[in-house]
Amino acid sequence: MGKRDRETKSDRTRGAILAAARDLFAAKGYERTTVRDIAGRASIDPSMVIRYFVGKDELFARVATIDLKLPNLESIDPSRLGETLVRHFLHLWEEDGRSGLPVLLRSAASNEFAATKLREVFARQVIPALERGRARTDAAEHAGFVASQLIGLAMCRYVLKLPAVVGMSRDLIINEVGQTIQRYVSD
Q1: Can you name the CATH fold of 3-63?
Q2: pTM for this one?
Q3: What local confidence, expressed as pLDDT, does residue 29 receive?
Q4: Domain 73-185 fold
Q5: Would you say 34 and 69 are in contact if contact means Cβ atoms under 8 Å apart?
Q6: Which ranges in the chain belong to alpha helices (H)?
Q7: Which residues contact 139 (CB under 8 A, 6 or more apart)?
């Protein structure tokens, strides 16, 4: 088998793995999908999944489509932007179990592809939402401040599961973190 044939076979195998992962994550979610399930769907040995994609986290990062479904900030009372963003963020993490955000955040710490994917979400969704909502010339900076707060909250509450933060009520988080976010998005 020549080099070109091996590359073509390799590309087909990668494509089959990605298609299987996309289907299974959509049908079963991240937690209930295993590397063995993905390999079975792709009709290959599980070791091939690991060979091409390191593991389930990278596969998920590659096939996940993250839509933050950010509200139209132009239609929000400017004095309630911080509260609105925090409430929306908590909804994504706690009520929208298919958002993929926890897996992507965990993966981003050690997987460059996942980190790139998070940066793309930030650049394509968060910055434009703040630019439209506040017509700021420094929207990227302020979006960075907002992201630092919300990602820090996510790490503590949903990934590290620090008891003090997990034990906080939604209302307390919306009020306290919302005030900080409000400072970042106010004119």
Answers
A1: Arc Repressor Mutant, subunit A (1.10.10)
A2: 0.75
A3: 74
A4: Tetracycline Repressor; domain 2 (1.10.357)
A5: no
A6: 3-28, 35-42, 46-53, 56-63, 81-94, 101-108, 112-121, 127-134, 139-154, 163-166, 170-185
A7: 127, 130, 131
